[in-house]
TrEMBL record:
Domain of life assignment: Bacteria
One Pfam family this sequence matches: Sua5_yciO_yrdC
Lineage start: Bacteria, Pseudomonadati, Bacteroidota, Flavobacteriia, Flavobacteriales
UniProt name for this protein: tRNA threonylcarbamoyl adenosine modification protein, Sua5/YciO/YrdC/YwlC family
Signal sequence interval, chain numbering: none
């Protein structure tokens, strides 16, 4: 059964953030809030956890397109090819924010990303994932929680999310109701921003 932690962005308790980080360090899969929707994630460097995440999504690991969640832009050089100054300035203007930016990947990505020429980078404007990544010391990965409802595309109620994923994940962070609009996906691989999916973020 998944443990539920109530952590609110107005006053996130460090000991609870530490508990979430410990779950990730032990190879756990967690559900956590962001500045858009609730997402499922794990430690980017734990291959078994990545396999579990892919299994939950019902896809093969080599076909995944999990976003990398950073707490700032300092991790970019770890996973992406060198980017132009103008592109970096563009990123700094829009992050943290409700965007997923597609950039050219380098060869330092973990094995779960083997063969991927691009990678999606997110820096959510939300204190909880920022604190988790900062305390973990490196990024986590993220994938959306879709709803079975025909009208609502994404699940917003953390209690219902916890009920649905109770036996699939190790921890659910309840931060109150989430949004129902995902991030805006922007491809920057050509040097010029190209919107792939319009979401919450407005360029």
């Amino acid at each position: 059964m998944a443990k539920i932690l109530k952590i609110y962005p107005q006053n996130p308790q460090e000991n609870l953030i530490d508990e979430a980080v410990k779950v990730l360090q032990n190879g756990g899969v967690i559900i956590y809030p962001s500045d858009t929707i609730y997402t499922i994630g794990c430690d980017i460097y734990n291959h078994k956890a990545m396999e579990r995440l892919a299994q939950i999504k019902g896809i093969k690991l080599d076909k995944q397109k999990f976003s990398i969640i950073c707490n700032d832009l300092s991790h970019l050089s770890e996973f992406t090819k060198p980017i132009e100054t103008s592109t970096f300035r563009f990123l700094k203007t829009h992050l943290p924010g409700a965007f997923t930016f597609i950039l050219e990947a380098n060869r330092n990505l973990p094995t779960a990303y083997k063969g991927h020429k691009t990678v999606g980078i997110r820096v959510p404007d939300h204190i909880i994932p920022q604190m988790i990544v900062e305390k973990l010391g490196h990024p986590i990965v993220s994938t959306s929680i879709h709803d079975d409802d025909e009208i609502l595309e994404y699940s917003t109620d953390p209690e219902l999310i916890a009920e649905k994923y109770d036996k699939l994940v190790d921890l659910v962070i309840d931060s109150g109701y989430g949004d129902n609009v995902a991030s805006t996906i922007v491809d920057l691989t050509s040097g010029e921003p190209e919107i792939i999916r319009q979401g919450k973020g407005i360029l």
